[in-house]
Here is the input.
Amino acid sequence: MSVQERKERERASRERLIVATARELAEQQGWDAVTTRRLAERIEYSQPVLYSHFRGKREIIGAVALEGAAEMAGALRAATVAATTATDGPRARVVALARAYLDFAADNPAVYDAMFQLDGGLAFAQEDTPEPLKDAFAALLETLGEVAGDGVHPALFTELFWASLHGLATLTRAGRLPPEESERRVELLVDRLAVV
Here is the structure.
């Protein structure tokens, strides 16, 4: 391995450490607790080293959001693949997708906030949208596109369904919706919106 390759590998390792530490701190104490000073202390690097990787907290939030989008896409696809063997057909896949989405949001609140609530400097629904965000949407579209209904644009239906899931995730987490009804909400959402 050349010196340059070793330096690039070390740089990538430091960057992963910064993102993982920011994510851990945010999940434990919230995003307000994530500061470059705290991150530097936790990873035992100086603040200038952090700034050599990220220009500030906004870029760190963006990196966490991209990592989260990739994880969410994987979780959604895994859930729909597992439901493919069910006899319910498309309905079972849509229910599995909705549950996986809501579970991801509940299990990873700081990552979910980085993805959809905080400014990570990322473009959504544009030409320059980063690939992990496009892939997370594609993971939704792959299942939801088949249940959009005649004459309904699959991407538009996916946006509507996604917005509904986001609302459920956000309102449940904020204590505005009783959690004991979440299963019924998923069933109602699927039965009323999806053509299954």
Q: What stands out?
A: The chain has nine helices and no strands.
